Amino acid sequence: MADTTTTTNETQIKISDEIFQQYKETADKWNPTLLELPIAQAQDVLGFMTGITGLRGTMHLQDIAAKSEFAPYDPDRVSEASVMINSRPITTYLGSVIEKFHPNDYAELTMGYQGATVGEGQKRTKPTLLVLSQLAKARGEALSYAVFNGVRNAKGKKCVDLFDGFHTIADKEITAKNITEDNKNLYVLAEKYTKLNTCDIAKNIIQTSNHYLRREQCFLFCSQDFADLYDESYLLTHPSVKYNEKYHQAFVEGSNGLVTLCPLPQLEGSKKFYLAPKKVMMWGTDNKSAQSFTQVDCFEPFRLTFSATMFFGVQFRSIDPRLMRVIDVSAQSATSGSGDQG
Known about the structure:
It is built from eight helices and 13 strands. By secondary structure, it is an alpha+beta fold. The strands form three sheets. Strands 3, 4, 5, 10, 11 and 12 form a six-stranded mixed β-sheet that branches. A five-stranded mixed β-sheet has the order 6-13-9-7-8, sandwiched between helices. Strand 7, helix 7 and strand 8 form a beta-alpha-beta unit. The longest helix is centred in the middle third of the chain and has 23 residues. The protein is globular, with a radius of gyration of 25 Å.
């Protein structure tokens, strides 16, 4: 492509074959890293969950259980075997992104820029890689939000349209009455949490959960304001604790150190929290097959195009009360002043 020059706001913009090739070669060379960056950036959420890689389409997460027991010896007693297999589908959907950008906007990036580094040798990082990696990271930020808040819409234009997030999946199970208070896989908060009661609320969530769930190493996925108010509440109910030694409480009181508070910005203002072990919160992706790629193209005189594809989706491995519990905190948003300190 021949050099092309235009004038905008008295600034000369020129995209040459050399500039295009620099970006294209960077995208080709760093393709595996650029494909991995969205997942890596979303680790602030995905790191507390279990991932399945190489998943395109649907697979079934199977949970098998049986009922059988010994009784006093009786050669004539016969009973029916009871083996139950529960299967939950996890589906990854193909997502794509095509974004145009002006490479000259980033021509002044210095070789030592450290705002968007990839691995080692950051002082030798080329501006082309800095630009592409920052775009790839931004895709991971949107992905981490969709993990909880996504609603599948095949005609949508955002990451939240790509797949059903945990809130949407939970809502469907609640509507189908598979997650209920009677089943003990649903806890409905009846009052607003404050610095006066959050510690007691958290303890009650744990202590009213299924006994088998209480034996699991779990995370209480919650908002940051809930975790902050838990700390405040803990201080009020445990005045002997020295402020400068143990202010932040990592574990929920009364859980025998098995339940870790896991505040996530993606749950801020949410109507649902979750109590579950890492093995129950599942995510799947395929970002390494031929159908997943990143590339740079030049279709216009003054702009380059950075495109990529990736499969992604989430699912609960099980909604058995022995393995998880949904916490309905709608009462918090139903009243004014959510997160009020008193």
